[in-house]
Amino acid sequence: MGITQTRAALSADTDQQVRQHLQRHPTARMTANEISRALGRGAGGRNGVVAALRRLADARQVICTEVPSPYGSRAMQLWQVDVIAARSEAP
Length: 91
Hints:
The protein has helices spanning 3-24, 32-38, 45-58, 83-89; strands at residues 62-67, 76-81.
């Protein structure tokens, strides 16, 4: 398997793990850091989670909401599963 295929496989695996985690918590809104920690990824794993969340948002499987940060810095991005899209996919 080439490098490109390996990266694509890792990306697909990360996408699936992130989607499944959010589906297990359908009403929760989580930051990328919270999702990364829940999946047992280190600090470097957060970048993969963020990339997966963006791909899933482009595919309309998750929703991103920006809210003011309690720390006064830039807005926080909270992610949750798109419940309407998930219902339409259910058998």
